[in-house]
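Q: what sequence does this backbone want?
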């Protein structure tokens, strides 16, 4: 899994994970692409990132027991309640989705859409 190598593409990054995790990371990628179709893929700070108009919008990363999504948008009250139990205890602007539970792809999609609304003018 992620060994601090400098990746050139998201495909290369995902390929370093076991097959079952690759499938989850690919679905995370597709969920973000569907939510923000104009976003361009890149690697930033060593992890998959999507940008719009030169602005880094959202990033994701695979770890041993979870998938992380960065950053967290303000969203609305309902969204904040929905993400409460996914908030990282260590990193304020990170959502963590345990790999031993179903990934809430709707939350990933909402996160991307709120970030677009908040960051792209």
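A:
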């Amino acid at each position: 899994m992620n060994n601090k190598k400098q990746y050139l593409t998201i495909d290369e990054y995902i390929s370093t994970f076991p097959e079952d995790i690759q499938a989850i990371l690919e679905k995370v990628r597709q969920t973000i692409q569907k939510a923000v179709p104009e976003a361009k893929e890149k690697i930033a700070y060593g992890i998959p990132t999507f940008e719009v108009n030169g602005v880094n919008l959202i990033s994701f990363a695979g770890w041993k027991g979870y998938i992380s999504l960065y950053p967290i948008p303000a969203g609305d009250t309902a969204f904040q309640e929905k993400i409460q139990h996914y908030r990282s205890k260590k990193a304020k602007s990170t959502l963590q989705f345990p790999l031993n539970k179903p990934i809430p792809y709707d939350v990933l999609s909402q996160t991307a859409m709120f970030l677009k609304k908040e960051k792209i003018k």
